[in-house]
Design a protein that fits this description.
Layout lengths: L4 E8 L2 E4 L15 E3 L7 E4 L2 H8 L5 E8 L8 E2 L4 H13 L8 E2 L5 E4 L1 E4 L2
Antiparallel strand pairs: 1-2, 1-5, 3-9, 4-8, 5-9, 6-7
Amino acid sequence: MRKVKFKVVDVYRGKRCSIYARGNYRLIYSKGRVVRARKGTLGVAVFETRYQAENFCNSDPHNIIRVVPIGRGRTVDTISRDLDPSSFNDFYVCMKKGYYTFDVETMKPPSGTVFYPAVKVLE
C-alpha cells in the first residue's frame, strides 16, 4: 500500500470538497471514494505530512483527511493564486501555452504540496 498523504478540505453544502478550487474544478471527497483530477489540470493537491497540511490551514477551521495517492505524483513551481473558476481557466490556458500573461496571478504552491492524478479517500 502506498504511503498516506493529507488533503485539506472544507464543508460546502454538507459535502467535503476542495478548499482551493471552485466551480467545475471543485472535487467532492467522500469516504471510500476514488477522486480523480479534472482532465487538463495539475491534479489532486495533497500534502506529504499532516504538519504541512496543518500549517497550510493556519488555524482556520478546515478539515484534514487521509488519502492514498493513485498514480505518479509531481511537484510544480507555479499554481493559480485566484480561486474563481474563470481565473483557473485562464491559468490552465496559459499553462498549455507555456507562458503566463500579466492578468493571471500565480504563486508558489505551499510547502509539501504534491499533485496526483487521483486519490482514494480513507476517512
